UniProtKB/TrEMBL annotation:
UniProt domain FAD/NAD(P)-binding: residue ranges: 6-315
Residue span, Pyridine nucleotide-disulphide oxidoreductase dimerisation domain: 338-438
Cofactors that this protein relies on: FAD
Record-given protein name: NAD(P)/FAD-dependent oxidoreductase
Signal peptide feature range: none
The organism's place on the tree of life at top rank: Bacteria
Keywords of this entry: FAD, Flavoprotein
Similarity comment: family membership: Belongs to the class-I pyridine nucleotide-disulfide oxidoreductase family.
Length: 452
């Protein structure tokens, strides 16, 4: 081991890697992180953080609407250029803070596209580095469309840097990125068109609530075009584009955002040459996140598995690898119930067993609680907010879905209750603050849960 430059080299500077890098460095190992773009990766620089910061005022405006005719007057609107300046002030330096933290810890940061010479040797810009173990955390990138005029189409990273809100934005796809950004753009005053090749929207989320989101977007003036694909894009001038569709219709627009999925960063790294198996979804791993080459592991979005591609799952895998490498955990990776949120307005959050699965299974019972109406005094007049509790045969909570503005906070409490297998007695042993949305949910949940 001592002959290598590093004990562990991490390719990719996102959440999939840096948590393990820090833990292993603190344990005294020699560590390097190779990053070709920006340390911190997608989430920190051009994903979750920028998205939620820009979404803040849209969320507030959405909540203000709950009080129309109920105590709030006046018009508030989003000033996109000012909001974008605020985003730059708060996000642009984040990677420098991370870089400082890594350097202070004694981690070597090597800038450039990493490629394999052999299973223990990586090259970057004609320099070679050796490592005992190597972790691939290279993430995903937006899938581009191979059509004439594709150079006029933007991706999520461009949107999160957009200096002005275009008058009309057209989104391609009805997945997570498209629906979140369409909600935000619509609230920021843009006319929005969403084009999809089928009628499916957000297959991973409960369709009961997806339908409500779709209707609220339609009510706000958003146009959906289903069963159509873009054939080509013509540029009329700098901000006037024409999309020709497979159904022979045309859409005139000022900005096009492609959100038709994300593909793994596995090319030009010499993976096939050294025997690391990949497929269309990413890098093939076993239950220890080990690739088909014994000293090479993979973590985060680039792993080919059915685990949701999210920052907390990348972080979980990173922490798992650190413990595995330190010999603190020798077991296969075991994922707890995974909490996730769709940041539309309102939000949809879910954890554990999915609602659409539970509703058609004899294994589970579902309790639907319209907590928005029940606890209107504390839900800021959000009368459509709803939770679904999913119980197993033992009356333990195994899943939950929350539809409402505070869903991302509420789902985390429910995730804890699931992971700790908490009973009604456990919940009643805690004194929670009142009034709050969480205490409302917990008090109802305790009525259905196993007692001890
Ligand atoms: C618009 C958007 C919004 C999102 N919102 C959320 C959200 O709200 N909540 C949530 O949980 N998740 C969200 N995600 C998903 C989240 O960003 C990812 O799950 C997370 O970033 C995965 O981390 P990672 O380290 O696996 O990959 P990444 O963060 O993508 O990091 C991979 C890094 O590897 C580098 N790299 C690739 N190849 C090489 C190479 N050969 N050599 C050197 N470096 C290389 C890349 O430059 C990149 O920096 C969002 C994603 C997007 C795009
Ligand atoms: N809140 C969050 O957790 C969050 C937010 C943003 C992104 N993400 C991550 O980003 C990824 C989602 O990215 P996404 O929304 O781009 O992908 P997606 O897979 O969610 O959606 C892709 C959409 O594009 C459509 N599509 C595919 N090919 C098409 C074509 N040729 N023409 C028109 N439509 C087409 C699909 O039908 C689908 O609606 C996931 O990995 C997710 O985990 C998560």
């Amino acid at each position: 081991m001592t002959n290598y430059n590093y004990d562990v080299a991490f390719i990719g500077g996102g959440h999939a890697n840096w948590h393990a890098a820090m833990t292993l460095r603190q344990a005294g190992l020699k560590i390097a992180i190779f990053e070709k773009d920006t340390i911190g990766g997608t989430c920190t620089n051009y994903g979750c953080n920028a998205k939620i910061l820009l979404d803040g005022p849209a969320d507030v405006l959405h909540q203000i609407k709950s009080y129309e005719n109920n105590g709030l007057v006046g018009n508030t609107k989003i000033d996109w250029p000012a909001l974008m300046a605020y985003k730059h002030a708060n996000i642009d330096h984040r990677h420098l803070e991370l870089e400082g933290m890594f350097k202070q810890a004694g981690i070597d940061l090597i800038n450039g596209h990493a490629q394999f010479i052999n299973a223990h040797t990586i090259t970057v810009k004609d320099q070679s580095f050796t490592a005992d173990k190597i972790v691939l955390g290279t993430g995903l990138r937006p899938r581009t469309l191979d059509i004439p005029g594709s150079e006029y189409i933007h991706d999520s990273r461009d949107f999160l840097d957009m200096p002005n809100m275009p008058a009309h934005i057209t989104f391609l796809g009805t997945g997570i990125v498209s629906m979140e950004f369409a909600s935000l753009a619509s609230m920021a005053g843009a006319k929005v068109t969403i084009i999809n090749r089928s009628e499916h929207i957000l297959k991973e989320y409960p369709q009961k609530y997806v339908a409500k989101i779709k209707q609220s977007l339609i009510d706000a003036g958003v146009e959906f075009i289903f069963n159509a694909e873009v054939v080509d894009v013509l540029k009329i001038n700098d901000d006037h584009l024409t999309l020709n569709l497979s159904d022979n219709n045309k859409v005139e627009t000022n900005y096009i955002l492609n959100a038709v999925g994300r593909i793994p960063n596995i090319e030009n790294m010499g993976l096939a040459k050294i025997g690391v198996q990949t497929n269309n979804h990413g890098i093939v791993v076993n239950e220890f996140l080990q690739t088909t080459v014994a000293n090479i592991y993979a973590s985060g979005d680039v792993v080919s598995n059915a685990i949701p591609k999210l920052t907390p799952t990348a972080t979980f895998e990173s922490n798992y690898l650190a413990q595995l490498f330190l010999g603190m955990n020798k077991r296969p990776i075991g994922y707890p119930a995974i909490a996730q949120t769709l940041f539309t307005l309102p939000r949809i959050s879910q954890v554990g067993v999915a609602l659409d699965v539970a509703q058609v299974s004899d294994e589970y019972t579902v309790q639907t609680v319209p907590y928005g109406k029940m606890f209107l005094f504390s839900t800021k007049n959000e009368d459509q907010a709803e939770v679904n509790f999913i119980f197993d045969k033992e009356q333990l909570l195994v899943g939950a879905t929350v539809f409402g503005d505070e869903a991302p906070e509420l789902i985390n409490i429910l995730a804890l209750i699931i992971s700790q297998k908490m009973t009604a007695t456990d919940l009643q042993s805690v004194i929670f603050a009142f009034p709050s949305q969480s205490i409302g949910l917990i008090s109802v949940l305790a009525r259905y849960l196993k007692v001890r």
